[in-house]
Fold each of these.
Amino acid sequence: MIKRYFKILSLILVFLFIMVPLFGQEDPIAATNAAIKNLSVGLDTAWVMIAAFLVFFMNLGFAMVESGLCRSKNAVNILTKNFIVFAISSISFWIIGWGFMFGDGNPIIGLTNIFFVNGGKDVGYSSIGWTQVPIWAKFFFQLVFAGTAATIVSGAVAERIKFHSFIIFSFVLVGIMYPITGHWIWGGGWLASIGFFDFAGSTVVHSVGGWAALAGVIFLGPRIGKYKANGSVNPIMGHNMALVTLGGLVLWFGWFGFNPGSTMAVGDGSAIAHIAVTTNTAAACAIISATIISWIVLGKPDLSMIINGALAGLVAITAPCAFVGVGSAAIIGLIAGVLVVFAVLFFDKMKLDDPVGALSVHLVNGVFGTLAVGLFAQDKITGTATGNGLFFGGGFNLLGVQALGVLAVGAFTFGIAFLVWLVIKSIFGLRVPKQEEIRGLDIGEHGAQAYSGFQIID
Amino acid sequence: MKLVVAMIQPYKLEDVKKALFDAKITKMTVSTALGCGQQAGYTEEYRGAITEINLLKKVRIEVAVNDEFVQPTIDAIIKAARSGNIGDGKIFVTNLEECIRIRTGEKGKDAIG
């Protein structure tokens, strides 16, 4: 009898011994799902980070375009500005910018966990919860965008602004102004809730940088020698078109991170591919139309206009890149290339001296690109339910919302920038003394030359 | 025949060129130059080390003229290049022995044209 019990007992023990490891493990299907989820987050993160690094590389593009289009006596100054501006952006966006932009709050501004990205704990940022990448990936990706907005200002105010005044303005722009309008559109604010669409930042990044720059250009006034006594324009040539070309191509390359990266997820890859092609098509068409228009209007195919044409097309397609077809992207690019040439001539005529054409590229085409969503959008072309634009049977609804967003962001940014420039002007001054401007800011602000030992006239 | 050589501020070049054209003086040679006069120069900093740079960037304009054009040339340069500040530059006038146009072999007054 005991022997029989012992036999049963030992069978149970053996059975348990076999089963224990199985009970200890998770359900195999759940384990596989977890691994897939892990892989998917990893893939998304890798993509977002690579895209962010490409956008970071655009700092080089801006530095080359801006320094090449300025005179050699100001090259050190503009390169220094381009270098330090990303440092300023990194710190101010980390301290407060991210929180104002993506913190949960009211429709105007973020108010939750606003300081220092909450130490990296992803709490209170529900508006950007749609992407599954880690918080620091979200932060870094958004940071490089904020840095771009600040860089736009540096070109427009070049060759005459005091170095420290520019630094202070950049800090305020990235810490406060950019995040507030960014909150309206990308942070779950009031423009997002009425159905305003800006995929990668024609308005959020480019026109904000453009409006801030416009206020600065108005305060600074034109460079000495830009206008003749009779008021006609005296062209001030850039000193190195090879640098401008290098910068133009670097920016074009970087835009493949700017636009396709704004998916912030890989998905099945189709959206990324679609956006890469719309982006490139718009740039290509804008180059062609800028070439033709400058040839007709100015008599020769002007390289600086052609490169600005490429940038204009890229800025214009930034908002609609995920919402329009490739054919529409081509038309948007063609229009952008025409706009930029006439905008450069227009700003010159209005005595708004913009040495690199930043207003024509980023402001004019940022506005146009945002409106283009209202004209050319096709519902769910890459999955986003935008509704159709005017040319695809959607009526004026979307176009009206886009126009409202353009006006609201423009009025706010221009107004605040005007005040900030005013305050900086009254405390620190904005413009370098006349004698320093004539000799060049390199010596006046930095005590150095870009091409020491070379003899260049200006 | 005289050779008028002017050292001017680089940013005044466009104005001087225009003033010369307006005075019907259309032939000139322009080159970059480094120099200093009463102006003390400036200091430059590189990697923390300060160097004294006393040569400033200037532009040198050379115009060969027949005698009746000497004064108009000088007047035009002064009118356009003078800002009233130290560093506006100087004009040197020297006698010119001969002038030969390479293409035709013409000499003297005709060669200056």
Amino acid sequence: MLHLLIQRLRQGKHTSSFPAGGAGLPERFRGRPGIEAAKCSGGCRDCAEACPTGAIATSPVRIDLGACLFCMACQDACPEGALRYTADPRLAARNKADLIVAEGEDPKLVAALDAGMKRLFGRSLKLRQVSAGGCNGCEAELVALGNVVFDLSRFGIEFVASPRHADGLVVTGPVTQNMELALRETYAAVPSPKIVIAVGACAISGGPFAGSSVCKNGVPADIPVDLYVPGCPPHPVTLLDGLLRLLGRIQGDESRRAR
Amino acid sequence: MQPVDASNPPAQPLPLDARAAWTTNAVAIPIAQVPELSSQEFRGACVDLCTQGARLSALLAIPSENAKPLQVLAVLSHDARRCLAILRVELAEGEGYPSLSVALPQAQAFERELFESHGIRPLGHPWLKPLRRHADLEASPENVQAHTFFQVEGASIHEVAVGPVHAGIIEPGHFRFQCHGEEVLNLEIQLGYQHRGAEPLLLRSAPARRVVVAESIAGDTVIGHASAYAIAMEGLGGAAPPVYAQAIRAIALELERLSNHVGDLGALCNDVAYLPGASWFGRLRGEFLNLLMELSGNRFGRSLIQPGGVRFGLTNEQRARFLSRLVAARRDLQGTAQQMFGAASVASRFEHTGVVSKDVAESLGLVGVVARASGCDRDVRRDHPVGIHHFVQIPVCLQESGDVMARAQVRWEEVEKSLDFVVAQIESLPAGSGGSHDVRPKPCMLAVGMVEGWRGEIAHVAVTGKDGQLVAYKIVDPSFHNWFGLGLALRGQEISDFPLCNKSFNLSYAGHDL
């Protein structure tokens, strides 16, 4: 027992100071992509053609964060260096239109739930997770939210074992044919009012598996989604930022600091 | 770190069996060099080679340009001789071949896959149940029987069904237990819920998309699968990446192993309610993900590996920072492991739980941590080296008892060996570049890319046609070999030991289902 206590003291405290403090992200971290239209000659479609998931539209350049895998293809392809990832981890949005990044526009950050829902869930939100073809990347980051660094439960948010105990559903994966029924039944088993959170490029758009004949390109349109969290997979800080904004616990420019 | 011992070179050939074409990891051969065997000869050769120490690493169908429409290729790994045997049989539409599984249980899942995906019937296969494609098979009544679960009958026998949606943040799969009281008589594992069509998607996509599909086969094994893909493509193109890129790949592969092994040790602690271990290992797992993020910009190393090389290197400041962070991580890991392995409550749950004997592991063709915990001496980094592993070897960690304790100990020993390796590589990182990303596969070739991922052997097999385009691509995740081992580990256990046994295997659902 004594050795255990000594070890406990030696290991120290590691809980992240986010959102009050910085997110501790390294220089190469790829957050919200930035577009410098002044540098773009507009004459080519190299970025759009290089993108493995077709997330980029041109003239003017716009990037759909719901399909973006945050890979390096567009940045490498652009001859003028007009596309650069920033370290801004705030990526989540309330609807798909807000996931489009365009030059000169401020990020459309997550708006809080309405007063009634906030009263219900603001201080205690229980979530049920369903992996529907997720590769275990998004799942691993959702698990990481529970470790001592991110410590999700300090915000009153917890993952529960049964949809009957849940206030909402977190969906990962491109929704395979073989999981569609289980996803729908789990959704139906969550009592109303409920929220749905789509985590990762797969759940939003199919991600790397978009267009596969055995997948549904993400959460089916008839299941209403309240929060989209882009990424492949999203960093735990991106997940935290989205969840806390949804509950109205972060507002405005708080949580901007990447480092 | 052991330098290669020049006085004791790997045992060299007895004459190689002429029924197969022989190659090594990462080295392509013209597909025409693979002898065409009759179905009887094919079965005979596979069985003979496996009796002489080979294992089945892949079994796949490729389109044929000859009169018969399909060919089946087998890739057998001969670990002791450090080479790969490629065997081939041609089949007519709907024609069967004598099943390998009766003599070689390690072939059972491969043959079910061939039947399900290509209609190639392994004659005499004992259990031709679908692996992944429930939906289209459910439509056909003749297959309903193939869907029933194995059942034990008798008074007071009961059945427990779990999944596909589980009680935690876990991928989906279905587990069917036949129990007598608490004792599990049989566990049948039905997967396929994660089937995303990764192989056809990879085959028909443009190169940029292929990389991201390869990275997403199993999201906890981004480096492993992306490396296997890159090695196969580089083999087809006849171009090896520069030494610098190979060193960065090897460092990333060990960081991936460290993060997962450390995470697994924490999860094993959690499953036996040893919470200090769960918290500390859980936190330390993140240290290695964060190092991967510092290297590649992503916690799982996405965008690092490209055919031809790597996209990022380490600056001198980064190297210094990595080394000091690794010192701190090692100190905390050792402190935690000492507490964990010294705790009687942990030992009493780990020891004699979920035993897999060496005989069972050999016959099922298990790979990786699970195989080494049962005394099977196999590790791709030593047996089928590519890149830096030709020059620097990481000691292979073995245990004999085959229980949860052995699987935990193999993980811990591998953590220490990986730390040694990463530190040595960072200290002696050669100067150089990440390499060119322009790799052009040559026509009518076959290449195998193998990597010792943190779970075990990853094998990718790529075949090109006349114009140099891919015509077949097979992905084998280590989980594909190992899931059946979990079922057998549960026999005679209490059902309450299932989570612990499951975690000690920690297999990928997505990697199996593809």
